Amino acid sequence: MITRRSALSVTLATGGAALTGAGLTPLLAAHVRAQPTTANAPAPPGTVAKFQRPMPLLPEKKPAGRTGTSDVYVMTMKPARAQILPGPPTDVLTYDGHFPGPVIRARAHHPVVIRQRNRLTVPTAVHLHGAAVRPDSDGDPMDVIEPGTDRVYHYPNRQPHAPLWFHDHAHHLEAENVYRGLSGSYLLTDATERALPLPRGRYEVVIALRDARFDDGNQLAYAMGDRARNTLLANGVPYPYFQVAARKYRLRLLNASNQRRFDLRLADNSPLTQIGSDGGLLTAPHTTDHIAMSAGERADIVVDFSRYPVGTSVVLKNTTGTGPAEETGEILRFDVVRTAHDPSRIPARLRTLPPLPRPATERTVVLRMDEGGEHPGAYIDEKEYDPQRVDAQIKFNTSEIWTVTNANARAEHNFHLHLVQFRVLERAGRPPGPGESGLKDTIHLAPGETVRLQAVFDSYRGRYLYHCHMFEHGVRGMMATMHIR
User: Fold this and answer.
1) What DSSP character marks residue 343?
2) Which of 297, 453, 427, 294 is nearest to 364 (CA)?
3) Residue 161's Cα: distance from chain center in Å?
């Protein structure tokens, strides 16, 4: 579990602005138990046996009631124990005791209110990733919920459908909090999406993917920037199988890893149909043989299992990232076990996106991390995050083009804007591929790569973050603040 010792080790590792009084506020306010940290514990010998356990469906959270036009939820952040590996259970941090967290299904223009109860020993801040919300409900890293207290978040849902997700964002603690389990899914739907004859009900499945490393007592081993997280989990289970019918399935994929990137494909290289990304449906379906997802990105795909005879199995593979192929090259296995009627289909046209307005201004953003050293710094425009500083002033109800560059020669980054969904204009000087042609809120940048994107800031005024969504890069300082006036 997270302790004062491990939390402070994270703080000291960031250096610079992390050591200001403002940066230390959440940690000094925490009342935590002194326990031994598992940060440097060795991984257990051998690998986890694959395809021995079924992949569970994530539980759906139901409203506790209604107030006026809003659905009201009560959610408790608390420690729990999860049976992840054979043998002793693993201590995890959870929303409502679930690892991973539950799924909330919301409707556009139908507000949601969530009372978050922090029953952990560390501060938290809940960020609804991809959502347009007021600043006081955005989960700002310094706007924390202290242990033993509650906080109410208001989500107006005045935006189109999108596969959002929620996770911890408490400054200096978010990387370890999320790694230990504080994330969940929030599927926002609208009339446009509901009108389409896509697979639904039991044939629409949320799959949260991530990596982890365990010590010899089956506990999650956390270390900043750890590249040895070689156990892959799907909905909290390592290398599970999932039984399917011989028909189409809609798979709502989330990369909930701290920093791992996935490149997913079926072992037989049969086609996948991508229908959506971070900000909801693409304008048209895209047929491909692989799906790339950096940390925090989502992909909405349809797989037609009717191409396989009953009794067939096909493995979902990963073809990128660190670690030995026998551990990181396979994620889960689909087992075709029955036939089923399939009235679903994928329309040739999924949605219409409005034309982009003329931009009011253009700006550049440079992401860079020290390459080498025990505690590398991380920067946006050569500055470490300072919560007291505003880095970009933006005029309300205008559109801007941002040119974002990864200045590193070896390190990967990605880029996430709070509050807004954006459109990708160019990647490395070329138009975006079909999978990046829709609305996005998080985008991968390879070493030396530049992307141009455009966003419209027309929902709320106030201060919001932009940052690398590889959590440990953000902890080290790769975050900045924009002020929309």
Assistant:
1) -
2) 453
3) 17
Alpha carbon of 370 to those of 377, 452, 457, 459: distances in Å?
Answer: 5, 24, 32, 36
Q: What is the mean pLDDT of each run of 10 residues along the chain (485 residues)?
A: 39 32 29 32 61 98 94 98 97 98 98 98 98 98 98 98 98 97 98 98 98 98 95 98 98 98 98 98 98 98 98 98 95 98 98 97 98 90 98 98 98 98 97 97 98 98 98 97 98
User: Residue 463 corresponds to which amino acid?
Assistant: R
Beta pairing class for 112-118 and 70-82: parallel
Q: How far apart are CA 267 and CA 285, in angstroms?
A: 22
Domains, the chain:
4-42+52-190 (2.60.40.420), 201-339 (2.60.40.420), 361-484 (2.60.40.420)
> Which amino acid, residue 106?
A
* Model pTM above 0.85: yes
Residue 105: Cβ within 10 Å count? 16
Instruction: For residues 155 and 163, give the distance between their C-alpha atoms in angstroms, rounded to a whole number.
Output: 14
Give the whole-angstrom CA distance, residue 3 versus residue 20: 21
Instruction: Sheet with 241-246: list strands edge to edge.
Output: 241-246, 330-339, 313-318, 262-266, 291-293
Write out pLDDT tens, residues 267-295.
999 999 999 999 999 999 999 999 999 99
